[in-house]
Amino acid sequence: MELRHIRYFLTLAEELNFSRAAEKLHIAQPPLSKQIRELEEEMGVRLFNRTKRHVELTNAGKVFLNKAYQIIDQVEQACISTRLTSTGSEGELIIGFSGSVQDLIPTIRNYRERYPKVGIVLQQLSTPLQVKALNEKRIDIGIVAAPVNCKKIHVKPVRKVSLKAIIPEKHPLAFKQSIYIRDLENESFIMATKSAAPFYYETFMDLFQNVGFAPKITIQANDLQTVSALVANGMGVALLPSSINPLSGLIQRKVEDINTTIEASLAWRKDNNSEILENFLKLYFEFNNND
């Protein structure tokens, strides 16, 4: 069955006259009769009762008439949506991120104002899972926090964030004027697992190579937001990227002798030529003053 069969059927159903329907369709009557006959044969039902003077819809034809209108409407809507998607005005953008989405909110707000018909889907994934999702075309763009070595993926560094101590607001360290890494020697650390955040894990462990003590890691979680929640409930302290906004009851403190930074980057497939993605990137760099 082709769209022309449905359009021919609808025209004949509206006119209930082969001559007028053929004229409206700008075709001869015999081809119209042939197309209707092919449609009925394919469907296995008679759609019209015909006499020399009269044409009327059968009960089956009346049922198909409603469905046919829906099909044409859906096809036309699909064409409109496709044209809008080709200009980046309508569609869906799937964004992967690790850590906190807080930094993305201003960009997403501006993007939604400019492209209100583009839906945004946010997926919290570790950097390795974002790379996997990009390669499998399950996300359009990722906010990654580790080097990405994949020839199919374009990586654009966007900012560097420092590691800061996250402690409960009533913790004794919260009242110290300055905090040094030695002040954390007897603290219980909460951190992300190596499988969930390998680059963060390795960066964290590297900090303690030359300080004379190993961190006392008591709890590990699969994401940094859970780490923050555990610290907020007095389960320990953490060293987290400064881009992670502390929860209520937490404070963020600079550790004076830690200068380590983690570079956050945007990552997307090189073969993704979507106008929706291109518009998001343009707006992101425009809003964040990043070339």
TrEMBL record:
Q: GO terms for molecular function, please?
A: DNA binding; DNA-binding transcription factor activity
Q: Kindly indicate whether the keyword DNA-binding belongs to this entry.
A: yes
The record's section on Gene3D superfamilies has: Periplasmic binding protein-like II, Winged helix-like DNA-binding domain superfamily/Winged helix DNA-binding domain
Q: Which GO terms describe its cellular component?
A: protein-DNA complex
Q: CDD domains this protein is in?
A: PBP2_LTTR_aromatics_like (cd08414)
Against InterPro entries, the record matches this protein to: LysR_HTH_N, LysR_subst-bd, WH-like_DNA-bd_sf, WH_DNA-bd_sf
**Would I find DNA-binding among this entry's keywords?**
yes
**Keywords associated with the record:** DNA-binding, Transcription, Transcription regulation
Superkingdom as given in the UniProt entry: Bacteria
Q: Which stretches make up the HTH lysR-type domain?
A: 1-58
User: Which family does the similarity line name?
Assistant: Belongs to the LysR transcriptional regulatory family.
Q: Can you name this protein?
A: LysR family transcriptional regulator
